[in-house]
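Contributing: when you submit paired examples, paste them exactly as shown. First protein:
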Amino acid sequence: MERKIDMEEFVIDLEQDQKRLDVILSERYTDLSRSHFQKLIKEGEIKINGEIKKPSYKCQVDDLVSLGDIEAKPVEIIAEDIPLDILYEDDDVLVVNKPKNMVVHPAPGHPGGTLVNAIMYHCGDSLSGINGEIRPGIVHRIDKDTTGSLIICKNDTAHVSLAKQMKDHSVNRIYLGIVTGKNIPKNGVIHAPIGRDPKDRIKMAINEKNGKDAVTHFITLCEHNGYALMAFRLETGRTHQIRVHMSSNGYPLLGDEVYGPKKCPFKLQGQCLHAYRLGFIHPKTNEYVECDAPVPEYFLHLMEVLHLDFQKDMLKEIG
């Protein structure tokens, strides 16, 4: 007997057999993120054959997937009047220069003072809701102690477009970083999967078995006495990608106490890493937009102390 399916249910077919539940949902509803579905599954909004499963559940042919409320919920974060360094803005996207020691979105231990709190005040109701309650407008992020360019989407159409560009690796993302070590190469490509460190779940590591594909292009812009100013172009965007790739190859980022030496000869607040350039195709005009975030003062001072120089034309070889 054929099972009756309404608008809030669907049956797993042969092509979806043994695929993760969260993956199937994100592929079926492309305007909503996988992390959004993971949250809903855990909250019991999505069930398999009437039962609550984990996001990692491997679906089987003829499983009945029932969906409750899958729309992004209204944001309840408190807007805070925090100054923003705006690099570009229009009705669809906002590009900001994130300062050091600012968390991108609220999390345990950081309920306020985040970039999301600031953009909520600046943009009001004009933010995409695809990433749910705590990440409105956020299509990608950078670490707390990493400075530089970050895109904010003001509507869901822009969010879907930018998320696809990120997935297709077509967003031009160039970082500047100061590394330390011996025999630092002039240029190269690091192609090594990144996943949770099996020995320390808080850290990421090169993980051949369970890691995700990660590719980092790099060039050495200048070098002096065991320190080098490097430029990195991300082909993928894994958590701590540059930090893990550099450390695993013997030249960690200066100040990175997680992946580098515990002791640093300079008083630094985290790794010396700056998201310098961000280039993307505008979701409405289809024109290329490129923003360069000014190098922060602490970074410039450190380059002066280490006798490292930076000129924009040095980046021609990497993008």
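Second protein:
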Amino acid sequence: MLKIIHGADFHLDSPFSGLTPERAAQRRGEQRELLDRLAALAREKQADLVLLAGDLLDSEHIFRETAQALRETLGNIPCPVFVAPGNHDFYSSRSVWAALTWPDNVHIFSGAALETVELPGCTLWGRAFTGAHQDSRPLEGLTVPDDGKLHIAVLHGEVGQGSGYGPISAMDIAASALDYLALGHVHQGSGLQREGNTYWAYPGCPEGRGFDELGEKGVLYVETEPGRVTAQFVPLAKYRYEIATVDITGAGDVQSAIQTALPEDTEHLICRLILTGEGQSPNLSALDRALSPAFYGLTLIDRTRLPQDLWTRREEDALTGLFLRTMWEKCQAEPDNPVCQLAARYGLAALERGEEP
């Protein structure tokens, strides 16, 4: 039985352009800690192989600290490590893959064509992106021999047709007769899939970088032997992004209603919290001051609606009634547009209480 750690899409040294320079530097440092957790997992599982299926780096521009951490950490993993560079960190004469001398246990695939490495009881197949796009099908024409060995491949590519990122068809996967295909490029984990007798998977990225990468992130621990493959998802991320919706209809204490709806441990949570329901407009500034210290990051969005009985005032023969009639028509015309509700709230507050939004 072969024990494999399969990871991909670390995107080390992401710019984190939406953060302050200080916070971005902090996040890049925290990203490097993923490497230590990867190495610790390989030791814990007594892995035979670590397969890294591309986009380990976010670009060819890399901080010296990251390059040093990458080389040292991969070198300290007590088993062979294979890297298949992807479209973000493609292999070139200027890339870190070519510029550094890598430890003996680390193999960097450097060509666009599949190459093999012979290991005890296993043939490992792999290749690299050599540019930001690659239209050729990496598995085209491949059928591994039935020689009693395990045949494993590590590639960066996209399952589907018409992709400019190493397109891989279901037919190519099945025809390859590989035992396991370790893929990278798609940031959402796929779970263990199968085409023909070939098992394949995307582990997803090991840590989210935005609200398009929600939930637990990590790597796969794979056990494979002829005719059998199992895969276990192992969380690796320190922080996770989540979008939560809380209905505050009838809540006497909005803050308590929110805290009741959220998990207790939010210290490592980067959360977009959307308030919905019917009632008076919540005080977002006060809520942010009260709740933010418990989160790594918190964004509050108000999508609540005005109380239905308030709309009855649109019949009043006064400026308030005229305003509410106008906003009622807009809200009815665009029922899913939260801006209409917010405009009604702010306008009513300005008219009746002299408040500014």
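If you have annotations for the second protein, write them as plain sentences, like these:
The mean pLDDT is 90.
The radius of gyration is 26 Å.
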